[in-house]
């Protein structure tokens, strides 16, 4: 018995050692993605910072104004601010006086999202938490005088949502970064003295379940010391067993390494990928940050949003839906409306989305605007356009109708199975009168194959 217990102890120790990850991509990429992330499917992205004060053009305001001197930004400043005005002067106007984190969290719950990702620091370098590495360029010292990351984290954690943080590696005008850049990234003073300590501070203080990295594209992963940091994150950090990360860890890394792939902004390949991925996209088609000069045609309709979600989920991705809050800390009504509409749709059709898997076919070969998900043995067909004459014709799903006892129901009208007929290489499904249907904007069929 003693020998058995000794062997058991040794095996346990070996298991623990083997679970450690080396600072190499081969080792880091072997880490299983925590399963909560794939099940969640839908997240909310929040781009919020000092750029929310001018709220003109995009979150790249400072760089467009003073980095590449884009005409419209320069003209905007010349016409509205004195010549001595600096970007830092916007900081005191980032007031967040109407920021009610519990209201935000409640809105995100109603949207049907399962996780939230807040920009803790964008490329401007301003941190939404009192970072000791931000040199008084943070929300505690300048602007709202509060810990915005902590406030939202606490509110979100009173719900069932997972809390995550975006963090930019580079900063446009930080002198240490620009010195390293001038040295062709052969020096790493910025990374060693600011970025690595800053990220560890962020992780240790707020323990996010998503670390969404960005701003990596000017330098390789070796400069950012990405593999060393990720080894610490996966081996030693307080979130080592639950955190998920993306692929923006160096100019040579995107869509190749990392927990989930983002590949590009608004990435929506339209086909199944062999690796878990995420479509980070915006309700405002133009900008990630809030813009006062946005017009109605710039805002996604609810049908456009559901379409993007459906295409993404059917191809195995998650969707991260961005809205930009105002400098006062509000989410404007049109963004609230889209999120609430999405939540209304998901309250009826969520079974076709949450915890689903990609099916063997992603979209129908006969009728456009029909996308599939699955929870074996059930297959869901999400129909983005109401069928002509209430008759839906499917080509890719015909194999599911090989026996007469296959059942089809319309989610939201589950008590009334739909009649269907298999004809040659297609199946025709009779939809009910549209006036009797609960769902709006798009409709999900639950197809349960009969016994064979």
Automatic annotation (TrEMBL):
<feature type="domain" description="Alpha-L-fucosidase C-terminal">
    <location>
        <begin position="362"/>
        <end position="448"/>
    </location>
</feature>
<dbReference type="GO" id="GO:0005764">
    <property type="term" value="C:lysosome"/>
</dbReference>
<dbReference type="InterPro" id="IPR013780">
    <property type="entry name" value="Glyco_hydro_b"/>
</dbReference>
<dbReference type="InterPro" id="IPR017853">
    <property type="entry name" value="GH"/>
</dbReference>
<keyword id="KW-0378">Hydrolase</keyword>
<protein>
    <recommendedName>
        <fullName>Putative alpha-L-fucosidase</fullName>
        <ecNumber>3.2.1.51</ecNumber>
    </recommendedName>
</protein>
<dbReference type="InterPro" id="IPR016286">
    <property type="entry name" value="FUC_metazoa-typ"/>
</dbReference>
<dbReference type="GO" id="GO:0006004">
    <property type="term" value="P:fucose metabolic process"/>
</dbReference>
<dbReference type="InterPro" id="IPR018526">
    <property type="entry name" value="Glyco_hydro_29_CS"/>
</dbReference>
<dbReference type="Pfam" id="PF01120">
    <property type="entry name" value="Alpha_L_fucos"/>
</dbReference>
<feature type="domain" description="Glycoside hydrolase family 29 N-terminal">
    <location>
        <begin position="15"/>
        <end position="351"/>
    </location>
</feature>
<feature type="site" description="May be important for catalysis">
    <location>
        <position position="280"/>
    </location>
</feature>
<dbReference type="InterPro" id="IPR031919">
    <property type="entry name" value="Fucosidase_C"/>
</dbReference>
<keyword id="KW-0326">Glycosidase</keyword>
<dbReference type="GO" id="GO:0004560">
    <property type="term" value="F:alpha-L-fucosidase activity"/>
</dbReference>
<feature type="signal peptide">
    <location>
        <begin position="1"/>
        <end position="19"/>
    </location>
</feature>
<dbReference type="InterPro" id="IPR000933">
    <property type="entry name" value="Glyco_hydro_29"/>
</dbReference>
<dbReference type="Pfam" id="PF16757">
    <property type="entry name" value="Fucosidase_C"/>
</dbReference>
<comment type="similarity">
    <text>Belongs to the glycosyl hydrolase 29 family.</text>
</comment>
<dbReference type="InterPro" id="IPR057739">
    <property type="entry name" value="Glyco_hydro_29_N"/>
</dbReference>
<dbReference type="GO" id="GO:0016139">
    <property type="term" value="P:glycoside catabolic process"/>
</dbReference>
<keyword id="KW-0732">Signal</keyword>
<comment type="function">
    <text>Alpha-L-fucosidase is responsible for hydrolyzing the alpha-1,6-linked fucose joined to the reducing-end N-acetylglucosamine of the carbohydrate moieties of glycoproteins.</text>
</comment>
<keyword id="KW-0325">Glycoprotein</keyword>
